[in-house]
Specification:
The structure is a homodimer. Chain A is about 50% helix and about 15% strand. Chain A has about 220 residues and is α+β, with helices and mostly antiparallel strands. Among the domains of chain A are: about 70 residues, Arc Repressor Mutant, subunit A (Orthogonal Bundle), CATH 1.10.10; about 60 residues, Winged helix-like DNA-binding domain superfamily/Winged helix DNA-binding domain (Arc Repressor Mutant, subunit A), CATH 1.10.10.10. In chain A, the strands form three sheets. A three-stranded antiparallel sheet of chain A has the order 1-3-2. A two-stranded antiparallel ribbon of chain A has the order 4-5. In chain A, strand 4 and strand 5 form a beta hairpin. The two termini of chain A are about 45 Å apart. In chain A, about 35% of the residues are buried. Chains A and B meet through helix 1, helix 2, strand 4, strand 5 and strand 6 of A and helix 1, helix 2, strand 4, strand 5 and strand 6 of B. Strand 6 of chain A pairs antiparallel with strand 6 of chain B, so a sheet runs across the interface.
Amino acid sequence: MDSAALLDLLGNENRRRILQLLARKPCYVTEISEYLGVSPKAVIEHLRKLEEAGLIESRVDDQRRKYFHIARNVRLEVNVSPYGFASKSAYPENSSFDVTTCRHLSLDVSWEGTDELDDLLRALEDLEQLENELSLAQRWVQGRLCDVLDQISETVGAGPESRIYADLLASIRSDPKSVGKLSADIDVPREIVAELLEAMADEGIVQRTERGWELTTNA
Amino acid sequence: MDSAALLDLLGNENRRRILQLLARKPCYVTEISEYLGVSPKAVIEHLRKLEEAGLIESRVDDQRRKYFHIARNVRLEVNVSPYGFASKSAYPENSSFDVTTCRHLSLDVSWEGTDELDDLLRALEDLEQLENELSLAQRWVQGRLCDVLDQISETVGAGPESRIYADLLASIRSDPKSVGKLSADIDVPREIVAELLEAMADEGIVQRTERGWELTTNA
């Protein structure tokens, strides 16, 4: 599911309350309707949307009554900053995460395939704590990203379009590029790319060589 | 801003498109209206909501035209799983994160207060990579949490209310508690807490002593 569809779904308070309820325990339509104080018809419509999106599923009990439960893990992250608006969603169960390939991060959790209850409860506590630490770390990174982008803007004397300046500079830092290649790389029209490069060339920040545009050596 | 208010705001596609546009560059109402293909009146209403929430701000240029830009960093995280529905939002700039206090996490980034352009661009690249690694790690943790909760359910023979079982057990693991204290701790009615404890006592998972309810030693 893409993050836009997920945001559309979660943008409704009653759908959020339904998910909160189902995360506690599976429910029948009548239970949800009573708990929310919303008509069964409206509840059914919300459930339909959540089910279509794959967030919930239904089963039928011994009395042939249909009840709903949350179907799978979904994670959504949204960052809003003066330098970007990004949202992403993912299904954790498909995560092929290998911490040993991380360059900037290492984890220490006692996660082993244990089936002793006491070990499982300890693993639960550790994982919940790690989740919280990761969340704090992400806030820290987002704050530092903003600081770095502020400093880049200041260094190159960029005004309001400073995110584009930073993307341009980051793109040519390790590899000189033509205007066309840059335009495709950072998804900005050629004319604007050309204009910004000329402005930065006047400031002595970038230069054009036979290999393309690159940072000047004293930048 | 609480996460519910943020989800309400971001649940609208045109407001998301406005934020995407403003993250690129500050804009006038007419620019936004043309870009979105939406009437200036509707744009003004969206901008009002975003401004009230503190996500955007306006300034007036030399020609006294009002233009809008993103005001601050906001981060939103939502987890949906069969064991929980949680959303949280935070302002990264207020983050008092100290990585040295993390028990399960360590970071390695070359973040120093540098003002050399090349160093800044390298810091930008490192931070963006770390951001991605943290995001993958969080998906991994969410998946593992779900695995652990599945195993706990299986071990205690819990049915659909298994999250409550796990919360109960986690709460008494290190510290025996009374029904009343447990009910307050995990925010579940006393009757239900008492009923689940009795059921688990029958299975030999928990026991009642003079200190309160606790895990049985062979659990």
